[in-house]
Amino acid sequence: MVWKLLRQHLSVAQLAGFALANLCGMVIVLMSVQFYKDVLPVFTQGDSFMKKDYVIVSKRVSTLGSVMGRSGAFSRAEVAELEEQPFTESVGAFTPARFRVSAGMGLQGMQLSTALFFESVPDAFVDTGLDGWTFRPGQEEIPIVLPRNYLNLYNFGFAQSRSLPQLSEGVMGMMKLDIRMSGKGQTGRMKGRIVGFSDRLNTILVPQAFMDWANAAYGDRKEEGPSRLIVEVNNPADDRIAKYLKEKGYDTEGDKLDAGKTTWFLKTVVGIVLAVGLVISVLSFYILMLSIYLLLQKNTRKLESLLLMGYSPARVARPYQTLTVVLNAAVLAAGLLVVSLVRAGYLDVLGRLFPQMKGGDMTMAVATGIVLFLAVSVLNVLAVRRKVGLIWEGKA
């Protein structure tokens, strides 16, 4: 009966305007979050086992320097100077194997064998999500990360010329390599397991713990300074990075600076769009509050009468609070539906452009939507309660 009495002055047009405005803001916010989550792996998945914003730095090799015996290794002073740069977060060194390594693998009755080289980087630069990236002395298996172009060379070059089967990354991960290490008059054999592939690192990466142990056991060459450094930067789009490297005559490997700039640009654009969506959501919140306040103002006499008849302020405010919560819930459901439909369309396009991209879920969008729904609903409920309280106190 209270609801029938109070809904007489309800403006459907005003509530529809709120719902539309809130839906636009909700869709923009949720779409920004979901699109960023879906597209970001395109720029980072190639080296998903490495930290996102890093640059691999090496000294430029010249014929004159080689003839004159100049080392291509970094000195401690050069490493310290790089660590002090404003764009640097941390610096790690590639540790090369100081022993001889070869690997063998049986395939269709053929025994393939080749000489290899190992390198390692500090574990702080390796994502802990990489499965099995650990080593302890006494362990018989070595986790290995290979350059992806090694697999491509085998599949599209060696395998086709020898009529051998092509191998996928999944199959390679199940195969075991026979690793032979020699040095200091000793020989050791272990098994190698491929746990990942890299698009940017042209090296065969092993855990730092294994490299330290193996160099101590088999290393028969003199230890020198690092010839390559991995530098974590706070913003790969910082123009001071390229300027510093050019002044020092350092080279960078791969396209990390370009990919980093693209990622930074993506974050900036998503941030701007997200801000616009939040502004629209805030404005729609005010539209709803104005509509509710206007409705309360029109029903002031009725509300006063209900309060004088013994109805509590909470009971009188409940219909309006229920109305706002139901509207917000409907907007959330409609927003998630729109986002899922749009997402299905662009994922189909991205899947054709980047076949290796893995589809995710909408957990982030759903969580963001629930947070917005709760925040807006709580503010609506409190505002309605305050307005009814003012009417009860005779101040409205």
What's this entry about, in short?
The protein has 396 residues and is of the alpha+beta class.
Short descriptors:
alpha+beta; about 400 residues; 11 strands; five-stranded mixed sheet; four-stranded antiparallel sheet; single chain
Walk me through the structure.
- About 55% of the residues lie in helices and about 15% in strands.
- The protein has about 400 residues and is α+β, with helices and mostly antiparallel strands.
- The strands form three sheets. It has a five-stranded mixed β-sheet with strand order 5-4-8-9-7.
- β4 and β5 form a beta hairpin.
- The protein is elongated, with a radius of gyration of 31 Å.
- Major β-sheet annotation: 5 strands, mixed
Average residue pLDDT? 78
Strand line-up across the major sheet: 5-4-8-9-7
Q: How many distinct folded domains? A: 2
Radius of gyration over all CA atoms, rounded: 31 Å
* Separation, N- and C-terminal Cα atoms: 24 Å
Number of helices: 12
Per the principal axes of the C-alpha atoms, what is the gross shape?
Answer: elongated
- Give the fraction of residues assigned to helices: 40-55%
Assess the beta-strand content as a share of residues. 15-25%
DSSP strand tally: 11
Element order, helices and strands? HHEHHEEEEEEHHEEHEHEHHHH
Main structural class: alpha+beta
Q: Would you identify the regions where 5 or more consecutive residues have pLDDT less than 50?
A: 65-69
